[in-house]
Specification:
Order of helices and strands: EEEHEHEHEHEEEEEHHEH
Number of helices: 7
CATH architecture: Alpha-Beta Complex
Number of domains: 1
CATH topology: Spore Coat Polysaccharide Biosynthesis Protein SpsA, Chain A
Number of strands: 12
């Protein structure tokens, strides 16, 4: 089946406290985005990648692609004001019946095994959302204060969130709502059941400077 990966890297990375968006910051000498792109290309030789970037950084993104990838499978488009709008922009380039991965560009430690698990579940059930159980104690805020909650019933959601195109593309024809925090919430709003797959502890999202240090250590251990 045809495969698309919409790699979303449309943010400015304000929490990193740097002038350069986090997706372009260097990790072991290469941009963070390099590792995400490389892993999807390694996972499936026939995959088509749609890279969504801030409009002001499309030129930098194209230079990165030309430097590291001799591959015509990567196309670049501009992002939007929110994640929803960035994904929606990327999906306009996914024109065929397919399996579509949507992945945070700064989850640069995603593994081929996770990509394959998501693909296989999406083929089987239509949707595949990677998730891990919380290791921390959980408390829910209430009007009276807060209450302890069973952490084994809380799942931490990751990407790549993966869907059959006949599910994802129609779901994104709706208008934006504040409750749309990821692709799963958009699809679920259409009354479609979401299937969870086992995520990975190392599949972290680079949001703070310390995350770069953690990612460097993990990459070092995997070599």
């Amino acid at each position: 089946m045809i495969k698309y990966a919409v790699i979303v890297a449309g943010g400015a990375g304000i929490r990193m406290g740097a002038d350069l968006p986090k997706q372009f910051m260097l990790l072991k000498g290469k941009p963070v985005l390099y590792y995400s792109l490389k892993k999807f290309l390694e996972a499936y030789a026939d995959i088509q990648i749609i890279l969504v970037l801030p409009a002001d950084y499309i030129g930098m993104g194209q230079e990165m692609v030309d430097t590291y990838f001799n591959n015509g499978a990567i196309r670049i488009t501009g992002g939007g004001d929110t994640r929803f709008h960035s994904v929606k922009n990327g999906l306009t380039l996914a024109t065929e019946e397919s399996i579509i991965f949507v992945h945070d560009g700064v989850r640069c430690l995603v593994s081929k095994d996770l990509i394959h698990r998501c693909y296989e579940e999406a083929v089987r059930s239509g949707t595949a959302i990677p998730a891990i159980v919380s290791k921390d104690s959980i408390r829910l805020l209430t009007i009276e204060g807060n209450n302890v909650f069973d952490r084994n019933k809380v799942m931490l959601i990751q990407t790549p969130q993966t869907f059959q195109s006949n599910i994802l593309l129609p779901a994104f024809r709706v208008d934006y709502q504040d409750k749309f925090t990821d692709e799963a919430t958009v699809v679920e709003d259409q009354g479609i059941k979401i299937s969870l797959v086992e995520g990975e502890e190392n599949n972290i999202k680079i949001t703070r400077p310390v995350d770069l240090l953690i990612a460097e250590r993990i990459l070092g251990e995997s070599i």
